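User: Can you predict the 3D structure for this chain?
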Amino acid sequence: MDLVSLVALAFPVGLTACGLAGTAMEMAGGRRLAFIEPYVSPRHVMRSLAAVAAAGPFMLMNDALAARRARRISFGLLVSCACTALVWALALGVTILSGLLWANGHAWPAGG
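Assistant: Here is the predicted structure, written as structure tokens:
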């Protein structure tokens, strides 16, 4: 698989992982996923980092949409948050695929 194919695969992998992690966290926590307790806590830094790494794009868009509904942010800032969430999901997918390739003894192909 060449680099373009892996990157094209990385985005849906990241988006799926983010959605699955976010939905599982919402079901376990019993409330909307956001950058608040019980998902993000200064007392549990490592757990919070793992939660944000896995479901961060979901959290970001939930918070951005809530802020837009409350008229606290502009449409341009909402679009900026959406672009950030998409890039974040791509990075998550690259990380997951890199880990899977490494675990199977393969290396991420060099670009060129």
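The chain has one domain: 3-103. The first helix runs from residue 3 to 29.
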